[in-house]
Design a protein that fits this description.
Number of domains: 1
Distance between the termini: 44 Å
Strand content: 5-15%
Number of strands: 2
Helix content: 55-70%
Largest sheet: 2 strands, antiparallel
Structural class: mainly alpha
Oligomer: single chain
Length: about 90
């Protein structure tokens, strides 16, 4: 049996198994430096503080990428309709 590889989270400083870290191809070990729990906490806090700016960025992107948005919405509607017809 292979020993479980562990990593220390840079936020909570706890030693946790690699499965508790999201993947990130640009890091040396292929995983983020914050565990999934701390990463979620960080982004929830970031979004709460910067919500107006985030929403403006999203609106601008959607305005500049109307075809991508409409294609995505159509795929989603088709998926939902297919699920409802099952």
């Amino acid at each position: 049996m292979e020993p479980e590889i562990k990593k220390a989270c840079n936020s909570c400083l706890e030693l946790k198994p690699l499965i508790e870290f999201s993947k990130q191809s640009s890091s040396k070990d292929g995983h983020k430096y914050r565990c999934k729990i701390c990463d979620k906490r960080y982004f929830d806090n970031y979004y709460a503080q910067k919500k107006p700016q985030v929403m403006e960025t999203v609106r601008d992107w959607q305005k500049n990428n109307k075809t991508k948005v409409s294609e995505h919405k159509k795929k989603y509607r088709d998926k939902v309709n297919q699920a409802n017809n099952v």
